[in-house]
Amino acid sequence: MHFSFKSRSQNLKKNISRRSGKFLKNVRVSTETVALSVFSRRLKL
Questions:
Q1: Which of the residues 21, 33, 39, 44 has the least number of beta carbons within 10 Å of its own beta carbon?
Q2: In angstroms, rounded to a whole number, what is the distance separating the alpha carbons of residues 33 and 16?
């Protein structure tokens, strides 16, 4: 019982870290695209 609970919590941590990693990647990409668009606009101005 205790062992199964431990493994379940470890799996939860793995899933959370995986999801947060994907989320961070998405945020990084979005921020880069926004920065690029702003930079290109300034160059045009």
A1: 44
A2: 26
The CA distances from residue 37 to 15, 22, 27, 41, in Å, are: 33, 23, 15, 6
Model confidence pLDDT, tens digit, residues 3-15:
677 788 888 889 9
* CA 45 distance to own-chain centroid: 33
Alpha helices of 1-45 — where are they, by DSSP H? 2-44
The residue type of 17 is S
